[in-house]
Structure prediction request, 961 residues.
Amino acid sequence: MSCEPWQCAEIASTKKANPIQKPEIAVAMIKKAQRPLLIVGSNVTERWMEGKQAIEYIIDLANASKIPVVATAHMVGEFIKRGYTPAAFWNAMEISQRVGDPTWMGLDGKGHPDLVIYVGMPYYMEALILAGLKHFAPDLKTMTIDNMYHVHASWSFPNASLEEWAANLKVMTSKFSGGN
Amino acid sequence: MTSKNVHVKIDEMKTNAGLIKNLELSIGKVINDNYTEPMGPTPMPSVTALRDWDMKLLTKYKPFYMPDCDSCCLCTFGKCDLTAGKRGACGLDIGAQSSRIVMIACAIGSACHTAHSRHLVHHLIEKYGRRYPLDVGGLNVKVEAPVSRLVTGIKPETLGDLDDILTYTEEQITQILATAHTGQEANNLDFESKAFHIGMVDHVGMEVGDIAQISTLGYPKADPEAPLVKLGIGSVDRTKPVIMCIGHNVVPSVGIIDYAKDTKVDDKIEVVGLCCTSHDMTRYYTRARIVGPISWELRFIRAGLADVVVLDEQCIRTDVAEEAAKTNTPVIAASEKNCVGFKNRTNDSTDAIVEDLVSGKVKGVLVLDPEKVGEVAVRVAQAVAPIRKRKNVLPTAEEVVAIAKTCTQCKQCQRNCPQDYFIPAAMKAAAAGDLSKLTDLYEVCIGCGRCEQACPQKIAIHSLIVKAGEKSMECEDNLCRSGRGAVSDVEIRNVGSPIVLGEIPGIVAIVGCSNYPKGGKDVYDIAREFASRRYIVVLSGCSAMSAGSYRNSEGKTLYEEFPGGFEAGGVSNVGSCVANSHIAGAAIKVANIFAKRPLRGNYEEIADYIHNRLGAVGLAWGAYSQKAAAIGAGFWRLGVPVVVGPHGSKYRRMLLGRKEDPTNWEVLDARTGETVNVGPTPEHLFNVAETKEECIVQIAKLCMRPNDTWKGRAGKLSHYIDLHKRYLGVMPNDIHLYIRTMADVPITMKDEIGKILEANNWKETIIPDPTLLPRMVRKMK
Prediction:
């Protein structure tokens, strides 16, 4: 698993994401956050692992972790079709602009998220959004749980195969479900 | 308006009145101004003349920056790390740097269009004279150059007048580029204002180029029934020599077509084009063929289709010469902007050039005389075709399998694919004899060839994809409506009222390039969705080609299924890139012709009108270029929202409204001067849609305007809600923000929406006569 940008030309970064070497570390960081938010993009219905779409793994994780989910693009309908209702649905830029604004009080109006987790957007688009947050919301912690290293996040998994990604997501889900 | 340069010098003249010696008289311009409309406040606006207007928009739609690069490397102070608040050696921060990059991109795009137009105007003046009259639509088009009139205050009547307008655009481009220098502009919003300025200038430059060519070259003139022309590789008669023109500037293509006609071989050769040159070729000569959008270059060259490739300018792959050499296809470079390293043979004899190209002594030549290009291209194509015998570099199906077996599944191809396509999986299947996944890739691949560049095994992956899609490619025989040019004044009168009142739910302008996230079918689907709902759909450039490349269940292309007028349910193609100005022009003409707002030099008022009343949205689903950025910027300054596909995020800056902030949506009621909250109409000025489904919903929402009548708003809301439910699977969660009175609620949804309004503590408000300009208030309370 390498810590190079998945799309090879996305190299221009002086401040690089800390790699998440084990899914347990991601779980620990999420548990430590008071107000985490999971933003889920359109590629979760494009990626298949072990005969299931990535969205199925994300639903399992969201159910186990109780992290509020924001669906971008047309994913809200895809979640609902599968019996999971996300906390909100937004355009990717709209929600990212808000999480980058420290005065925004979150989906419930009770406080700004202290950890924003991204997964499943087109790689280049997610990379740019994370770059925007890195520069303009330097106090916000960002994480990606994709199988592609995102240099502009605070924390990112290294590049990994779809099988490894599925395994990571399952471990994360199990840890939130009370597994060891 | 006419202008002349007069210089008289008399060394000595004896007359009855006396002796004149050493008299020298210079007159810069003799102006004969027939434009009787009084001049507005901002003719030929300087860089800051419309800054206040820009700041109104930028207060409403705040930049959301996504820097592609943490550092700045534009001067030798650098590289400077600008991460998270650090300033560079010059003092600039990342916000200003990001907006500076946006502005530079827009300036490049604007320079490109203006330089194109400058070449056209020079060439056409040389050929037809400065006094050649402009005619873009006969008696149906009295407002022949709405953008130029609005911005410069000039009403151009002749080719020579266009020369004067270009002098203005060229100066502005220079001024704007100067501000990008180290130690000039410091503020991000001022850079944004300058990006808007150069976008406005871009539309002037484009308009000049298109009305020059429409007037002189016999193009369709504001014609809703412009002819249907052949589109697609399958439409090309490959038993004939094929000349393929690539680029945007039609002048060399005209040379080719004229020579072929003059020598009576026009029915014995095929003249085809890629990208906007092909639009303009078919506007000039309906037997020309559009083979496809710009990013299809590699597939057509490698398939061996062309016997000669002629390059003019803009959006041309810079490795065309190398690619063409692989299929023994001679190349003629015909523009000073793109010399390709070839020897300039403009002054050589035609016979010598033809002989060198046919014999293969040289792979390509630079010829800057369009008439000579015409003769050389036709003669070379005729001579080369029998020798080349359609040589291509595509492998056989058996070879595809064998080559695929050399793939090591390193994934470098996928990691370098802009779309992150699963190329390794397709290679694996191909190695096992199943080419279906490669065929699927053919349908969505944009043809950039980055996969090949990355492959450590040096596999020509794109050629494998093209081979797998060869059968599909040969079936590409569709129809595109030839570029109609301007929207006529009559059409504007017919639709002005229903558009402004909201009864036509919107104008959807689908423009730009072919960097699509999932192939061109999305463009067809989006256009068809809105045309079916009786929006006005206008297309241009590569998007117009992609929209024509698919058929409905009855076998009809979009242009056969829907009428070509600027009307509810119409699908029109205005033409090439420079014809995009007619879309802005149509919006301006609604304000001028329908609403009788003064046009001349009156930018701010017209933009205020368009922003608050005209439900128009631009979509550049596959935008990739700096030109597309400039076109977008021109629409931003007019207050027209623009949506881009996911790759448009690489423009690195969005302009987003905050719908939950009521102060963001205040306008003045021009009747009373009262401040009224009109809701997020339109919500954004520039935004990305991640998927086709989201894009369709976003467009419907962005068509709402403060001025909509209750009937118009109810119709627009019906579409928004219906599309939201269909494509996103749920009811929108922001409907209460768009309802001003209960009359706005679609009649069949009263109960459902009533509950939503109650839950959101909704309060009724008024429908104002909206403006952002205090000076437009008629009676201040």
About this structure: DSSP finds six helices and nine strands in chain A. The longest strand of chain A covers residues 36-40. The helical segments of chain A are 23-32, 54-65, 75-81, 92-99, 123-136, 162-176. The domain at 21-174 of chain A is CATH 3.40.50.1220 (Rossmann fold).
